[in-house]
């Protein structure tokens, strides 16, 4: 394809400056918007996902990080293009979904509005554990895998919280950590179940735990309030 000298000048300028606005390139070259745009389109370009997409760079300039992002000064670019596509890809490539804070830390921009819109459009899903929301893939298999990771992380935090008090990673005597984790996960899912019902449900899934062992776990982690399991207290402890 034959390129005019003006188009070649636009590419040369952007190679030198690495990042620029359309108006900045037009003013320095003294050419029209269409000339610059045609040059960038023919060569390949990206627009920033902040500053209202007003900054441009050539497609072969960015050195993307592990998340597919590149920063030049305060201007940020994504190999995925738009803000929405970038958020979806970040969530898709995460082991256990991402919180708003985690997304903002990776993108270094606010994402509240875009994330809400993506959930409404069913391009992402939301999981709430305690008072914390996690955003996950809309693909069922991946969503299930991400949810499992997050719930296990939350349950392990309960176990770690007892380490300081007991001088070791606290697990009730006679129980395996995997059994304790299964029980704590089921408590979050169905906090209304009694100890006996919870035991029967777990045993039905092949998890060997008796009703008295369920009571031991609840007491061990102080998840019991008076004579009933306090689901709100359990959620608060698990969300830590």
Describe the structure.
The protein is α+β, with helices and mostly antiparallel strands. The protein folds into three domains: 81 residues, Winged helix-like DNA-binding domain superfamily/Winged helix DNA-binding domain (Arc Repressor Mutant, subunit A, Orthogonal Bundle); 56 residues, Winged helix-like DNA-binding domain superfamily/Winged helix DNA-binding domain (Arc Repressor Mutant, subunit A, Orthogonal Bundle); 68 residues. It has twelve helices and nine strands. Strand 8 and strand 9 form a beta hairpin. It is rod-shaped. It starts with a helix and ends with a helix. The relative contact order is 0.07.
Key descriptive features of the protein:
240 residues, alpha+beta, Arc Repressor Mutant, subunit A, 3 domains, 3-stranded antiparallel β-sheet, two-stranded antiparallel ribbon, 12 helices, 52% helix, 14% strand
């Amino acid at each position: 394809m034959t390129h005019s000298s003006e188009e070649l000048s636009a590419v040369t300028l952007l190679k030198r400056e690495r990042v620029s606005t359309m108006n900045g390139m037009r003013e320095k070259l003294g050419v029209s918007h269409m000339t610059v745009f045609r040059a960038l389109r023919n060569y390949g370009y990206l627009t920033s996902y902040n500053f209202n997409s007003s900054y441009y760079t050539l497609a072969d300039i960015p050195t993307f990080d592990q998340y597919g992002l590149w920063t030049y000064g305060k201007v940020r670019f994504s190999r995925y293009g738009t803000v929405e596509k970038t958020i979806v890809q970040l969530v898709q490539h995460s082991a256990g979904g991402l919180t708003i804070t985690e997304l903002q830390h990776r993108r270094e921009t606010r994402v509240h509005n875009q994330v809400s819109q993506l959930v409404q459009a069913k391009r992402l899903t939301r999981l709430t554990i305690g008072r914390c929301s996690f955003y996950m893939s809309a693909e069922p298999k991946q969503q299930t895998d991400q949810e499992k990771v997050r719930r296990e992380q939350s349950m392990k935090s309960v176990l770690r919280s007892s380490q300081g008090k007991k001088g070791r990673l606290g697990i009730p005597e006679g129980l395996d950590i995997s059994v304790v984790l299964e029980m704590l996960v089921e408590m979050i899912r169905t906090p209304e179940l009694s100890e006996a019902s919870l035991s029967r449900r777990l045993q039905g899934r092949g998890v060997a735990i008796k009703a008295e062992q369920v009571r031991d776990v609840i007491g061990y982690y102080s998840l019991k309030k008076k004579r009933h399991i306090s689901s709100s207290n359990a959620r608060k402890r698990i969300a830590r």
